[in-house]
Amino acid sequence: MSATTRLAQKLNTIADLWVNDPFRPNIQLQAFLKSLATHPRLTPQAVQAARALKDNNAQKQYPLSKRTLQPASMPHHYDRLIEGYHKSLQGIGRPWWKIFFGIW
C-alpha cells in the first residue's frame, strides 16, 4: 500500500467522523474532505490539519477566558446564541414581539 493510499484512508476516516451541518445540507465539509482524499498530491500536512480541526486542537491550545466568553457589555450573548441555534434546529422561532422589543 502506497503512502498516498494510507493518507487517503486516514482522511476518509476523519471525514466519516465529521458531523453533518443541519443548516447547510447541500454544503458539507465531509464531502470536501472525501474529495480531497482522492487528490493525487495529498500531503501528510493536509491530513494533520484535518485531524487538528476534528480534534479541536486550537481551542484546547488557546482556551478562551471568561472575559471573552462573557463580555461586560453583553454577558449572555454567547449563551443566547447557542440557545437560538438549538431552538432553530427544533424549528422553534422567537415570537415577533420578542424580536421587536429585544426581549430574550
| Strand content bin | under 5%
Q: N-to-C terminal Cα separation, in Å?
A: 57 Å
Given the structure, what is the number of helices?
Answer: 7
Rg is 19 Å
Largest sheet geometry: none
Helix content: 55-70%
Give the low-confidence spans: none
Secondary structure class reads mainly alpha
- Count of spatially separate domains: 2
Report what the structure shows:
This protein folds into two domains: 1-61, no CATH class; 76-104, no CATH class. It has seven helices and no strands. 6% of the residues are buried. It is mainly α. 62% of the residues lie in helices and 0% in strands.
Secondary-structure map with pairings?
Layout: H1 3-17, H2 29-37, H3 44-55, H4 57-61, H5 66-69, H6 77-89, H7 96-101
Give the tags:
mainly alpha; 62% helix; 104 residues
At a glance:
The protein is mainly α and 104 residues long.
